Automatic annotation (TrEMBL):
InterPro entries: HTH_LacI, LacI/GalR-like_sensor, Lambda_DNA-bd_dom_sf, Peripla_BP_I
Superkingdom per UniProt: Bacteria
Protein name stated in the entry: LacI-family transcriptional regulator
Pfam families in the record: LacI, Peripla_BP_3
Residue span(s) of domain HTH lacI-type: 18-74
GO molecular function annotations of the record: DNA-binding transcription factor activity; transcription cis-regulatory region binding
Residue ranges of the region described as Disordered: 1-23
Keywords per UniProt: DNA-binding, Transcription, Transcription regulation
Length: 349
């Protein structure tokens, strides 16, 4: 007796699962090249353009390797943990999107774990992280959570972290110092000489770098700088900026914020005090999340490539899992000039 061929919906024959040969044919490369690219071992063997073409062909065809045998052989769960400060932060949501995209291309899943309270210690969300995870990608802002989940005992990639204190992890960083340098140079070129730094009150390398670069550039220019620490929230920034702007003494003409969220609070504080932005006070942010284009005026800020940050974090973890030691990587930051900055002058400066 002959058995009927399996069928798809509406009585149609089920579509054959795409193979690596199909991907190779679509991309115009060999199956060996497909294996190198999808195994993240292509660097130095095929061009970046070829790697992009193979990945795009795999996505278009819906190709997924049959991983069961490979997982059994390697003893892997095909699961990575992404440790971030908070789920409510758009920047880290975009980091997750990028990491999950690359993970899916390689048959991995990404578990997103926010450190409770944003930063600091966390409870272990697993009975045994070592048994359930292949590796960890962690933001430096949530680094303390690693101790609780024993993440530093697993293959580890640190994001936006101090190269001098990397815990032996692979590093993917952002051009934070360069971004703040661009902010300082932009405002100095506009003629500003009295600055207020609205600084996140979080003891994290990424914020220390911002503060250090801003202070160095302004000192070189002989400019005045005051600092107002603030919680990383709109309400906290509004109160901190309001107190600092209303304090006795010379009034700043430029307010540099560590984050777009802080800049939104600073704009609220300026309005409460009757200050016009940018005529009386220039305001800058950092990150370039959607909020930067939603406030009025739109925010001059530093664009950080959040999704690419996540992609590179996951690619780096895959490289580590393959037994290689990737070189530290820094993604560029770029100043985006919008309507919240202008030369000083409306107040007689």
């Amino acid at each position: 007796m002959r058995h009927a061929a399996p069928e798809g919906g509406a009585g149609r024959p089920a579509a054959a699962r795409p193979t690596s040969r199909d991907v190779a044919r679509a991309a115009g490369v060999s199956q060996a090249a497909v294996s190198l690219v999808l195994g993240e071992k292509w660097r130095g063997r095929v061009s970046e353009a070829t790697a992009d073409r193979v990945r795009e062909s795999a996505r278009t065809l819906g190709y997924r390797p049959n991983l069961a045998a490979r997982n059994l052989r390697l003893g892997r769960t095909r699961t990575a943990l992404l440790v971030v400060p908070a789920l409510t932060n758009e920047f880290f949501a975009r980091v997750y999107t990028g990491a999950a995209e690359v993970a899916a291309d390689h048959g991995f899943g990404v578990v997103l774990y926010p450190s409770p309270g944003g930063v600091g210690p966390a409870r272990d969300p697993f009975d045994s992280a070592r048994a359930l995870l292949d590796g960890v990608i962690a933001s430096s802002m949530a680094a303390e959570a690693l101790a609780a989940i024993r993440g530093d005992e697993l293959p580890l990639v640190m994001l936006d972290s101090d190269p001098a204190d990397s815990r032996g992890a692979a590093l993917v960083n952002l051009g934070i110092a360069e971004g703040m340098r661009q902010v300082a140079d932009h405002l100095l070129a506009l003629g500003h000489r009295r600055f207020l730094h609205l600084a996140a009150d979080i003891d994290s390398w990424t914020f220390r770098v911002r503060a250090r670069m801003l202070a160095e550039r302004l000192a070189e220019a002989g400019a005045e700088l005051r600092t107002a620490p603030t919680p990383l929230s709109v309400a906290g920034a509004r109160e901190a900026a309001g107190s600092a702007l209303g304090a006795p003494g010379s009034s700043p003409t430029a307010l540099v914020c560590d984050d777009d969220l802080l800049a939104a609070g600073a704009l609220k504080a300026a309005r409460r005090l009757g200050l016009r932005v940018p005529e009386d006070l220039s305001v800058t942010g950092f990150d370039d999340v959607m909020l930067a284009g939603a406030v009025d005026p739109e925010l001059t800020t530093v664009h950080l490539p959040a999704e690419e940050f996540g992609r590179q974090g996951m690619r780096t973890l895959l490289t580590v899992l393959d037994g290689e030691r990737p070189a530290p990587l820094t993604l560029p930051a770029r100043l985006v000039v919008r309507g919240s900055t202008a030369p000083p002058g409306a107040r007689g400066d």
